[in-house]
Design goal:
The protein contains 20 helices and no strands. The protein has 479 residues and is mostly helical. The relative contact order is 0.15. The chain has helices at 3-31, 36-43, 50-75, 77-97, 101-111, 117-128, 135-167, 171-192, 206-229, 234-245, 247-256, 264-267, 273-286, 290-297, 301-304, 315-339, 342-362, 367-395, 401-428, 439-460.
Length: 479
């Protein structure tokens, strides 16, 4: 067996093992969304308050993904993947048996460690593809497969949530389903993903991690204070200003650190910075807008004048249709990018997201129109979910693929965390009912999602035309 076929078979075996891991990752992302209103009723909180669970999880993800991605490059991607799966399983069991807002918040945040799975998996795949002539394309194809598994898991999660809720009454039984699956992930990684790793030189940038953590905590903390103290209070704005100020010493330190957490010199590359900013903006819609979609669909139009009047079992097909469109977008991207440049596909995907959410502003009165708008946005979102990590891996220096792909997840989760905070505030403003969010808040969500996608499409035009593509083969020299 030659080196190329050997690399191909090893990569196929690895991808087969990781498909289950990403299926469960998607299941976690799809399962809880239809249950948003049920969880709010269980905890006796407002629909808008559910966004704070999402914000806490995304914030912790943004804090831990850079460190865990770097540790993956340093000590082994499989080892970090396994420990993150263990922590995710513990947190998911904690969610199942929690009964207060505070404990839900803690365990929901800890569960966010699973967001490091995808960048670690892409790094594993990229390393295994070493020796292939079409390494970048092979990474895109394999990433498309595991992202397709992620989206399939999200579909299964959304549909299972509705069926399980209809079949079982105690909510802890409903929430035990994803806990069982995350336990299975721990076993699969331990048994099916080998520990082969070439140790990379370097160390974890503790100072850089502390500075960026302080910045994120202060900014998101300031946003949460807007919810409790009101827009007129100076404390939220002071906290956000101090948090933003921390970015200056963070940037200075990263430029002179011997082994920075975020290599700003690499970030300045024309093939890298638009990708990372696109991931930041993409997080607003793909992570920040899902809970508002579920709560809007479950709002009773007869009582509140807006919403679709669905419940946790009937909203699942709507969310499933959206997630199915993500699956299609992820699968189609790899094929389309073979005919057109990856950059053009990224721009087109961002355009579909902008169109879908833009249409939702004026077409949200019926289930078919809402579903159609979400499918359009979902096609673009699926393509970006598959494309951004692979694009970052192709643009990264050798030995730093996990850091680069992890950074796309970090920036995406930062965008989602900020969006969840902002959307939570917007949905609570003007709410006249004890449980339902305000219609003006939903308009804010959709307009912001559309606008950020437009900005992302513009940013991607700055990427070199042939970025992320495999180099053209050299012409054969005939003696």
């Amino acid at each position: 067996m030659g080196p190329t076929s050997r690399a191909t078979s090893i990569g196929a075996g690895l991808v087969g093992a990781l498909v289950f891991v990403e299926f469960v990752s998607g299941f976690l992302q799809g399962y809880y969304t239809p249950l948003a209103s049920d969880i709010a009723r269980h905890l006796s909180i407002n629909d808008a308050d559910v966004n704070w669970f999402e914000a806490a999880q995304l914030l912790l993800s943004a804090l831990c993904v850079p460190a865990l991605s770097k540790l993956g490059d340093l000590v082994g991607h499989q080892r970090v993947l396994w420990w993150s799966a263990v922590l995710t399983a513990v947190a998911t069991w904690g969610i199942a048996f929690s009964s207060s807002f505070e404990t839900y918040l803690v365990f929901w945040a800890l569960q966010g460690v699973f967001t490091v799975w995808l960048p670690l998996e892409v790094a594993l795949i990229y390393r295994r593809s070493l020796g292939l002539a079409d390494r970048a394309a092979a990474t895109r194809r394999a990433t498309g497969v595991i992202v397709a598994a992620l989206q399939a898991g999200a579909i299964a999660g959304a549909l299972s949530a509705g069926a399980t809720t209809a079949a079982f009454d105690p909510i802890w039984i409903v929430l035990a389903v994803p806990a069982l699956l995350t336990t299975g992930v721990v076993l699969v990684i331990h048994l099916a993903v080998d520990r082969d790793h070439v140790v990379q030189a370097g160390s974890l940038d503790g100072r850089g991690l502390a500075l960026i953590s302080a910045s994120l905590v202060l900014v998101t903390g300031g946003l949460s204070l807007v919810r409790t103290e009101g827009v007129g209070s100076p404390w939220p704005w002071l906290a956000m200003a101090v948090g933003a100020a921390f970015l200056l010493p963070f940037g200075r330190w990263e430029l002179r650190a011997p082994d920075p957490l975020v290599d700003l010199r690499v970030m300045r590359q024309p093939s890298m910075w638009p990708v990372q900013l696109t991931a930041l903006l993409f997080g607003v819609s793909v992570l920040g807008a899902q809970v508002p979609l579920s709560t809007f669909a479950q709002t009773d139009p007869d009582e509140h004048g807006y919403g679709l009047g669905l419940d946790s079992s009937t909203v699942a097909p709507l969310i499933g249709a959206y997630v199915l469109s993500l699956l299609v977008g992820a699968l189609v991207f790899a094929r389309v990018s073979q005919r057109y440049s990856p950059r053009s596909c990224l721009i087109g995907a961002a355009g579909l997201i902008a169109l879908g959410y833009g249409l939702l502003v004026v077409a949200h009165g019926t289930i078919p129109t809402v579903a159609a708008c979400m499918v359009v946005a979902g096609l673009g979102s699926g393509a970006l979910v598959a494309a951004l990590p692979a694009a970052a891996a192709a643009a990264a220096p050798e030995g730093r693929t996990a850091v680069a792909t992890g950074l796309t997840n970090t920036t995406k989760t930062i965008g989602g965390a900020f969006a969840s905070c902002v959307f939570g505030v917007a949905l609570a403003q003007g709410a006249t009912h004890s449980t339902a969010a305000s219609m003006s808040g939903y308009y804010t969500v959709w307009v912001v999602c559309s606008a950020t996608a437009v900005v992302a499409a513009v940013l991607l035009t700055f990427v070199p035309r042939l970025a992320f593509a495999d180099p053209e083969p050299l012409p054969e020299v005939v003696p």
